[in-house]
Design a protein that fits this description.
Length: about 625
Amino acid sequence: MGLTVAEKIIAKHLVDGRLERGAPIAIRIDQTLTQDATGTMAYLQFEAMTVPQVKTDLSVSYVDHNTLQNDFMNMDDHRYLQSVAAKYGVKFSRPGNGICHQVHLERFGQPGTTLLGSDSHTPTGGGLGQLAIGAGGLDVACAMAGQPFYLTMPQIVKIHLTGHLPPFVSAKDIILAVLRQLTVKGGVGKIIEYSGDGVRTLSVPERATIANMGAELGATTSVFPSDAETQNFLQAQGRAADWQELCADRDAVYDQEFSLNLSDLEPLVACPHMPDLVQKAAELADLKVDQVLIGSCTNSSYKDLMTIAYMLKGKKIHPQISLGIAPGSKQVLAMIAANGALSHLVAAGARILESACGFCIGMGQAPNSGGVSVRTNNRNFQGRSGTKDAGIYLVSPETAAATALCGRLTDPRTLNLAPYEFELPRQFTIDDSLVLEPNPQTEIIRGPNIQPCPKREALTETLAGEVLLKIGDNITTDDIMPAGAKVLPLRSNVPAIANFVFASLDPTFAKRALEKKGGLIVGGENYGQGSSREHAALAPMYLGVQAVIAKSFARIHKANLVNFGILPLTFTDPADYDKITQGAVWKITNILARLKTNENLSAESNGQKITLAYDLSDRDREILRAGGMLNFVSKL
Ligand code: MIC
Ligand code: SF4
């Protein structure tokens, strides 16, 4: 039986388990990436492991999320990250060098290798044929310490692409079409693999856009084959030696198959407040828009910026629109500056923003109240932009540029422009001077904002806790642990950031949890979707949360809950969700014994009884019994 691309990479890296769907496996990790918002904790945890140097082939620490530097805290984090990277053998991509996923694709990703990143959009590397997976910071710290990454062997879904994109229809429209079909939970427990003649028509940055937003499907990762197009890209990045061919065998077996004819696609829009609420741009033509933002790890490549420069050249943006553009990397910015494309953007009226995550994570550019903001990034969760009642519409760069010109949401095909013929440069501008090489002699610098990672006690046999919060389906990690300019500077200070847990859903949560000395959270389907931020588990742990009972969980968040010793439990009968009311006290008994034998748990409140399940590997259950990963590894 033949193998898929993902199976080939996993087979080569398998250190434990069998290549069987649903089986627990462990894979060797070749490369890691971290970013500043998750990185400080990851390196504090790595330091606690007392490993002298990272054991991966390559580890890179990026600073891209928080570059506002409102006060000392932010720059303190940068200093800590720079010094800890140097000491332990990690390359350091300085602020200004660009967004981690864009830079990693350009300068470091390699077909056929594994990449583990403390950011949910790490799968961007799938555009190069790399098996790139997002995880919590602690899992990445373990990978840097030389441990394998443990996961459940995902199902593999094939999306067969045929045809070619019509003019002004873009890679973003492909992934929006996939999201419309599969929804934000359609990818949970799955790897999405792209194949077919249509793949050949897509450049690596376009493939990366699609793989990037596979995160919004909840997928473990997405992966493209590595072909002649991949070779061209790597060659143009001066990295011809990093290329290897990689494609699925003809008789590879998939768990699900879909096909998509690119020639039939049209410009699409994800409407507020979920990336899968997809409509045709043409259907929203009456929507008046206040702001357009182009950038983020989804759509800030050289191709994206050249395309919008072509569309805006010689024109002025609509007077009602504020247009912000953040090129994804220093390389992109340097190239559009050198070839004059930047001047077209500036002349059209764009505000040029730093090459960083910026608006995508609510670090500036919050829309006006009740505003309509059309953006090229990947998440439009309510409030993430910094303005709770704003509506965020996710689109391609082409649709964004057309909208900036017209002031209303505009299908770019209606501008009747001649098609833009993009050609991949034969040689990208290469200047890695903002990537610092390690130096083990470096002394680590810790400002007052750098606080140690808290631990918890080992699990007890019985747990009794009040239901502190009962919430519905698709709760995101942005709901659990908001980001934005106020909260992000506290990522290295868990006691301080814990005050903001569930702040936008229930501002009293943190206070109540502390007063009650912890308790339980009850959620619906797909609890914890979105970002990989482990603070969405770590901060609740600090507040004493002992278990989350939900209808189902998103992959990365579930792993983070286990890492921090919080039980991720599910209902055996979904109707039991209705039996639990906020404020009630539930008691769960025989926990240690049942986790050991992998049996369901019984919970009881005022004479009512329910049975709770969990889907955890032997190792996960041991980690929970120990009270989390840090206790678990210290016992090894
Ligand atoms: C995001 O897009 O939500 C982030 C910010 O990049 C996060 C990481 C974080 O919260 O630090 C992610 O996607 O993992
Ligand atoms: Fe940064 Fe946004 Fe990408 Fe997250 S999704 S890595 S915040 S650009």
